[in-house]
Every structure is written in structure tokens, then in C-alpha cells.
Amino acid sequence: MRSLKVSDVMSNHIEPVRCGTLLTRVVKSLLQNHVTGLPVVDDQRHVLGFVSEQDCIHALLVSSYHCEGDPIVDDVMFREPVTVSPDMAVVDLAQNLGAGKPKVYPVVDHGKLIGIVTRTAILAELARAGCGIELPKYASADD
């Protein structure tokens, strides 16, 4: 299990959000991809920020109340997101998860976004590997 890396469980099919994107489009992407947040990148895929469901909810409530129109992601994104390396051990990342920590981590290699890893993906991998659960009798201890 220790040899399992973030790159083994990350998703790389989800398009990141680009600066200048309307928040309603961000919400659509969050819902379509079943994730709670997405990295915000520039044209070279450098991570500039992170936008979560909670950011969107708050911004849409405020803009709706004040009739301000559709905000853009730049106005609401968190500008210092926590990123992880594709070579980081899943076990190490799992040990760092906790209350108040991100549920989605941008995976960055050589300064560029290559994917995301979610708490859900880590949980699924830990369950699959048998950490903390009783394995069926036919399963190998190495699975």
C-alpha cells in the first residue's frame, strides 16, 4: 500500500477552470464531474487558485441578492491552494487528511496541473486495499 502513489488514483480527465470563467459555468462543471471543487489555471496549466462548491454558493447568493449578474471565478477563488505531487504516497496523503482540509487536491508536476485527487478516490483505494477492514478469506494479504 505504501508504494501506491497519488498518480495511481488521480483523475486526469476533468478539465480545470480557466481564469475569467463565469461562475455559473463553474457550477455546471462541478455538478457534471461530481466533485466539490476544481483548480483554476492559466493557459499553461499553472495552478492559480481553487474554487469550491462553498465559494460558489456564497458568491451566487450575494450576486443574486444584489442583482450584480454572474460573477467570474477570479472573484471568488482561493488563491493559495494546497497541491500535491504525483509521486506522493497515498498513505501519506491519507494521513494528512482531516477536518477543515481540502476534499480535492490539484496534482502538480513540474509546476503544471496534471490532474486532481479526491478524498473519495483515496477512501475507495484504502477500502479496496483492505486497510482497516476485514478481508475476505480468499483474498491475499498482499492485495
From TrEMBL:
CBS domain location: 10-68, 77-135
Keyword set, alphabetical order: CBS domain
InterPro entries reported in the protein's UniProt record: CBS_bac, CBS_dom, CBS_dom_sf, Diverse_CBS-Domain
Superkingdom of origin: Bacteria
SUPFAM superfamilies: CBS-domain pair (SSF54631)
SMART domains in alphabetical order: CBS (SM00116)
Pfam families linked: CBS
Annotated source species: Marinobacter similis
Protein name: CBS domain-containing protein
